[in-house]
Design a protein that fits this description.
Chain B: One of its GO terms (molecular function) is proton-transporting ATPase activity, rotational mechanism. Chain B: Belongs to the V-ATPase proteolipid subunit family. The complex is a heterodimer of chains A (about 120) and B (about 160). Chain A is built from 5 helices and no strands. Chain A has about 120 residues and is mainly alpha-helical. Chain A has a domain of about 70 residues. The longest helix of chain A is centred in the C-terminal third of the chain and has 37 residues. About 15% of the residues of chain A have low confidence. Chain B is an all-alpha fold. Chain B has a single domain, classed as Four Helix Bundle (Hemerythrin (Met), subunit A) (Up-down Bundle). Chain B contains 5 helices and no strands. In chain B, α1 packs antiparallel against α3. The chains are: A mainly alpha (about 120), B mainly alpha (about 160). Chains A and B meet through α4 and α5 of A and α3 and α5 of B.
């Protein structure tokens, strides 16, 4: 919080120097860190972790279930293994849809609280 | 080795089935991903919080490619023929049919997912209630690829049995 208060004093210092500060008029999130304009700063780490999890699950889930089912659960019955792989892919899809819906609900509730 | 029922050119059709299963589903998945991805890039500049929901169509396009991959791996496992090393011409035709069914169904499903994902993401920017309808139509589009997968799996059992 001390850093936030120093931002205003820094702006005052800029205005005293007569420099037209481009920081003014922008939202507070930008004035907090005016130097960092990268996209990585705006994306929350939880969203990145969720996307990485679903990417990994979509790539490795069906393949791993296919080979595990083909070698351990139903040895030799590759049709059942293929069906299980397709089911696992759809389970990952349903999980992603539920995750997307829940995240949007939290965003809306947070927005209503802030308003 | 080569007989009347298992000629030397029989594996050509099986290999064509493997290739068509993987190639056509990948074409469909690529079209769906690209078409939906352009809409996501357009919507994300206006409202970044909608990106997560708009990515559902991209995930569904990936599943279409997974279907083709499953059938291609399944057919490739049977290309060696029976215990005597005989690969019948009937097996080649069945594998070609299985690969073409999942490949063309995946191509159709990917095309539908791309168009629905594009229009749905752009409409979702204006009206948030369209999300349920968009997901429902996307699921119906994705089920088209699932039908091709089911037919491919059933066809594949006709050779080993």
């Amino acid at each position: 919080m001390a850093a936030r208060r120093n931002v205003k004093t820094a702006q005052d210092a800029l205005q005293k120097e007569g420099a037209s500060s481009p920081v003014e008029g922008k939202p507070k999130m930008v004035t907090k860190q005016p130097k960092t304009t990268g996209a990585a700063q705006t994306v929350p780490s939880s969203v990145v972790a969720k996307l990485l999890f679903f990417t990994f699950a979509m790539i490795s889930g069906p393949l791993a279930s296919y080979y595990v089912s083909n070698t351990m659960i139903f040895p030799g019955n590759s049709t059942a293994a293929a069906a299980i792989a397709a089911v696992v892919a759809n389970v990952v899809l349903i999980g992603y849809i539920l995750a997307a819906i829940s995240e949007d609900d939290t965003d809306q509730t947070e927005g209503k609280k802030s308003q | 080795m080569a007989s009347e029922l298992s000629p030397i050119h029989a594996p050509f059709f099986g290999l064509a089935g493997v290739a068509s299963a993987m190639i056509f589903t990948s074409i469909g998945a690529a079209y769906g991903t690209a078409k939906a991805g352009t809409a996501i890039a357009g919507v994300g500049t206006f409202n970044p919080s909608l990106i997560m929901k708009s990515l559902i169509s991209v995930i569904m396009s990936g599943i279409i490619a997974v279907y083709g991959l499953v059938i291609a791996v399944l057919i490739a496992g049977d290309l060696g023929g029976d215990q005597a090393g005989e690969y019948a011409l009937f097996s080649g035709f069945v594998h070609l049919g299985a690969g073409l069914s999942v490949g063309m169904a995946g191509l159709a499903a990917g095309y539908a997912i791309g168009c629905v994902g594009n229009a749905g993401a752009r409409a979702f920017l204006k009206q948030s209630k369209i999300f349920v309808g968009m997901v429902l139509v996307l699921i119906f589009s994705e089920v088209l690829g699932l039908y091709g997968l089911i037919v491919g799996l059933i066809l594949n059992t006709k050779t080993s049995g």
